[in-house]
Amino acid sequence: MAADDGDLALEKATLRLINVVAFTSGTRAHSRRMRAATGIELPPSDLRFIELLSGREPVSTSTVAKELGIDLAQASRQAGQLADAGHIVRETDPADRRRVLVGLSETTAQVLDEWLVHWSRDYLAAIERWSPEDIAATADWFALVHNRLVEALPDRPRSAAADRWVELAGNDHDAETRFFARTMIGMVTWVGQSRGYNDLLEIIESPIRQQGFFTLQVVQQSGPLSIADIAERLAIDPSQASKRLRQLTDLRLVDRAVDGFDRRSSLIRISRKGAAVLAKVADLQMTAFEGLTEGISTEDRQRWTPLVQAYISELFSRRIGADGVIRPRDPELFSPH
What is the per-residue pLDDT for 1? Predict the structure, then answer.
């Protein structure tokens, strides 16, 4: 039986993680974090492309398209651009000369190894003072969540990042910490590449997709905001934010109001229609997640909830700035209601 409405603290805390990871991966925040760590910045779509290839043997372009949920033409264009930039290598499939295989270049593979080790430390820092027993218990919960997500959506990308981290880390950590890190890396990369909000938006027949949804979330949580403020919170360029907001305005999902301090500028606020879209998606997401966690015993729920809440509160006590540097976080976005 699923938990009662008053007993969903474990699900809410976990969805907080899932939502923030999805948001970060879908904006330039993830890319700018990589730039701060490695000196290389790529658009989110290109970073997802090469991260999918990390730790894997070369695969066909059609495999990349299928796993990332993009059309073959887009995958082919991206492959060509990334090959020209020296990030991937294209080769003819010896088993079928009509197919092209893509894999990481040696240099980019090394960069992604460095990047993997770097960002994984963010997830380990929050447990550095924890007991092995608490670390193992928390890892058990996230492993259960990840496994059930994969079972529910088997067509999503299967990143090799977690196994690659184990190879790179060697014996640097105790067994409990290695299990925790492998579990978290697996779940985080799955969430970041799955683009799950598109599924939810399609179910409610919304005309927007994931990027527009993230924009609505920012406007609802922090608005009214200027276009520049929205761009900063999304870690995107103001011109890109302006383009998204024009679409949302045309769909009447946001409203524009004159800025009382600068009448030449406008402030963006959520409309009733936009707020309704967010509420429908949140309800649908929670219902689906309750289904995934069905059958958890009261004992396990009581054991896991305070650990997961403590971990996620510590993890998201900071945020990624526009320069890729982590700083104290603004009031939390994307908390399930």
Answer: 41
